[in-house]
Write a sequence for this structure.
């Protein structure tokens, strides 16, 4: 069993059937302004289950980065607890995971409300953040998603057939959805998938080049070399290489937002 | 290009969010009138300002990548046409305008709104995020066609959140009452043509600020309601 959060910008871990490599880098815009990276993630693995959550704090919020950290950490804990309690019993039980995820989001919102009061903010809008997570076992899994960013599940040799939890914004950039909004329940989407050795979670900064031009699937020219490389090297080295790739001039040329990418590989007999 | 740690990895081209700036420009005969002490006409000063606009946008790395420009002209024999664009600010190279004819403002603005819709639909088709478009309506005189339906349609588009409307009256003969009818959120700017270069510099700075803004952020233009990008 292991659990990690995005205290360090790049981490890799492997135990038993699960291998996770994660990185988050500050976008050029934040680096210029000296403001913190507003992406945060947390992940954990118990036996052959994996739980991962990625949140992206809103730049317009006073403390979006805090909302992202609290949201990701609390959701992973809540999902692990639900799993240990034997509920839901299967990775693809969408209705049951909806209950578990909603309970986790409510807990995160309660924590943020207390924090808002103690910090003198008017409400939890100060901590606006998107939320994207996944729970999976070798039988399959479920994405849960509020806002932008993207989740991908599938087989590395069949990237074009992967299941996608797509970004969901309103018509314009100023209509992103957050788990800290009153309307979060209406914007929560769950997407179930079958056995998937490869799982990706990405913030919108990374989705700009990890997904294809239409943003309805992965970009094989980016993903295939990435997966091959991570498969060959130790997780810690893979995490460093991933962070360097996200922090490259090529990546910042495409998007100067913060960039996060979690790559999870599970050993599944086909 | 730096050495990538992961071999063969490929990044696609620029997919920055876009901010479309639509300029609806009066090019009627009155724009030929002299407007500066040394006899430069309004159209001369406008063209000078546009060149400064292009330079200022290119000099800002973020704006050059994010801002797109579309220029719609109106004048001649009650005609409306696309003068230039849409193009990225990085490649915006304004050819000089010429002025002649009438002031069909009532036809020009719906034409511009329609162009805006086609372009932003194109952004969506290619999954390119975009800010609300800025529509600058500039005139130095009275319209020569029925402008009221266009004003109502523009106010409706503004109220729906489709566009941000910024009316500008050039000189004392501009019809500010008509221009005011095109936006509920901000009154028309009043400038003399001799201040065109300063106007364009200010526009370029405002666009640069907007291109750096985060979702929901309010940008104070200094008049009217702040622009929420």
């Amino acid at each position: 069993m292991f659990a990690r959060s995005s205290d360090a910008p790049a981490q890799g871990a492997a135990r038993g059937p699960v291998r996770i490599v994660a990185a988050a880098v500050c976008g050029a815009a934040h680096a210029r302004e000296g403001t913190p990276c507003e992406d945060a993630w947390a992940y954990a693995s118990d036996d052959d289950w994996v739980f991962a959550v990625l949140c992206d704090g809103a730049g317009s919020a006073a403390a979006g980065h805090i909302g992202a950290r609290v949201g990701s950490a609390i959701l992973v804990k809540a999902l692990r607890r639900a799993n240990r309690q034997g509920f839901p019993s299967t990775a693809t039980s969408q209705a049951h995971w909806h209950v578990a995820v909603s309970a986790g989001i409510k807990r995160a919102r309660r924590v943020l409300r207390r924090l808002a009061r103690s910090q003198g903010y008017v409400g939890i809008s100060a901590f606006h953040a998107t939320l994207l997570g996944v729970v999976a076992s070798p039988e399959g899994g479920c994405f849960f998603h509020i806002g932008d960013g993207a989740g991908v599940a599938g087989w590395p040799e069949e990237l074009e057939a992967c299941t996608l939890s797509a970004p969901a914004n309103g018509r314009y950039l100023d209509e992103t959805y957050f788990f800290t909004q009153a309307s979060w329940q209406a914007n929560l989407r769950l997407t179930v998938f079958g056995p998937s050795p490869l799982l990706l979670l990405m913030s919108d900064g990374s989705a700009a080049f990890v997904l294809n031009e239409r943003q309805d699937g992965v970009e094989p020219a980016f993903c295939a070399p990435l997966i091959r490389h991570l498969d060959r090297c130790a997780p810690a080295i893979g995490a460093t290489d991933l962070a360097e790739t996200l922090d490259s001039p090529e990546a910042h040329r495409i998007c100067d937002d913060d960039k996060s990418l979690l790559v999870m590989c599970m050993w599944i007999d086909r | 290009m730096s050495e990538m740690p992961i071999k063969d990895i490929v990044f696609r081209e620029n997919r920055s969010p876009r901010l479309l700036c639509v300029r609806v420009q009066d090019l009627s005969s009155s724009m030929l009138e002299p407007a500066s002490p040394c006899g430069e006409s309004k159209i001369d000063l406008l063209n000078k300002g546009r060149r400064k606009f292009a330079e200022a946008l290119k000099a800002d790395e973020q704006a050059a990548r994010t801002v797109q420009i579309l220029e719609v002209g109106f004048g001649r024999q009650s005609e409306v046409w696309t003068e230039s664009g849409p193009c990225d600010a990085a490649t915006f190279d304004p050819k000089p305008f010429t002025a002649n004819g009438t002031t069909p403002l009532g036809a020009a603005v719906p034409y511009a709104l329609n162009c805006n819709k086609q372009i932003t639909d194109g952004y969506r088709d290619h999954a390119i995020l975009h800010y609300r478009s800025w529509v600058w309506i500039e005139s130095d005189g009275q319209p020569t066609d029925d402008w009221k339906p266009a004003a109502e349609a523009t106010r409706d588009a503004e109220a729906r959140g489709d566009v941000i409307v910024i009316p500008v009256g050039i000189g004392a003969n501009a019809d500010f009452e008509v221009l005011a009818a095109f936006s509920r959120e901000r009154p028309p700017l009043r400038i003399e043509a001799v201040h065109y270069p300063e106007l364009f510099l200010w526009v370029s700075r405002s666009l640069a600020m907007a291109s750096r803004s985060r979702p929901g952020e309010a940008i104070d233009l200094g008049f009217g309601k702040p622009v929420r990008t």
Notes: The radius of gyration of chain B is 18 Å.
